[in-house]
Amino acid sequence: MQPFALNYARPAAELEFATPYTYDSGLQLNVLLDGGIAARDHALLRELGTTTSTAGSKTHFDD
Amino acid sequence: MTVLILTSEEDVTADMVVVHLHALGAPVVRLDPADLTSGVALSGEYVHGAFRGHLSSAGRLVSLDGLRSVWMRRPGAAATRAAAPSPWLTEESEQALYGMLRGAQVRWMNHPDAARRARHKPWQLRLAQRSGLPVPATLITTFPQAAREFAERYPDLVVKPVSGVHPQDPPQAVPTSRVAPDADFAAVAYGPTLLQRRIAKRADVRLTAVGSALLAARKPTAPDADPDQVDVRFAPSSGPWQPAEVPPRIADAVRAYLTEAELAYGAFDFAEDADGTWWFLECNQSGQFGFVEVDTGQPIARAIAEWLSRPTSDELPQPVNRTGTRLP
Prior knowledge:
Chain A: InterPro entries: GRASP_targ, Rbsml_synth_pep_Strp. Chain A is of the alpha+beta class. Helix content of chain A is 11%, strand content 16%.
């Protein structure tokens, strides 16, 4: 009784690492351990994949 | 006048916009509705024909009269991190928050009503057709026989979820997948199934629309790419996204789509075929953009910040559509 589309499902890949930044409610931004702004570190964002089109899929419709 | 951003704390893509809002000197209040009653508070008073409303978060207090715009980025379900969460409390909190915000004179990216409608893929496909965008032959059906007949007409098909939602029990991903020529379509009867003619693509295209600004990026398909890997989100990367020119006919059609959809933001996915035709796949009204900006350097976050912080005096003469959103 499984719908056809689910024949093509695969286990979801979970983020298995701790992001190296924390939210600073004063700045309203995520901040790196050295005090830098995470969003300015594009190399880090590319490495983590936290801005990609599969990030956030668990809780939101839109990728 | 303040820009209100509704999103989670860990949303580093939203950070990319906040950085620009800070640089523009635009006041920002960022909060997650999930934190309502536990770090986020609201109040609204309807007295003597007038309304006064306030939101507070992390020591910031903003009047709803003082809001310029609302960015519905990645808001959590309201009050889900409250001390005693419940479906009832979530409903109460959603009604209170969004009910008050709907009454505020703000510009939305995107208005909740427009966003909800725009998530429907069948509606997207029809609007794309009407807007003049090429749409691959598509069937959405629960009739196995209809699927079989469609597969006879279009032997090379892909299947994808109708809703874009991924199953959570257990957590699964359902990528757009190629359907084998000898597929058994009997299970189509157990759930609406979206079948679409596969576009033999030479590139994926992501076009990000921010107001009237259109920023396109292109990722060429590797010559040795596996033809069964049709979903760029799950395929091995063939290289970085690269900036691309938007063909004038596509630009006109995308703007028509956005106007009809009453969207201020949209992330359009296209498959580019060997002839250079951009085939419409979908438009995510809250699609991610950070990965495109990181690869291409295109100023998407800045464009969003500028749209959100645009002075009110520029907004007043503009027409208002039926959902109360000023047109982009």
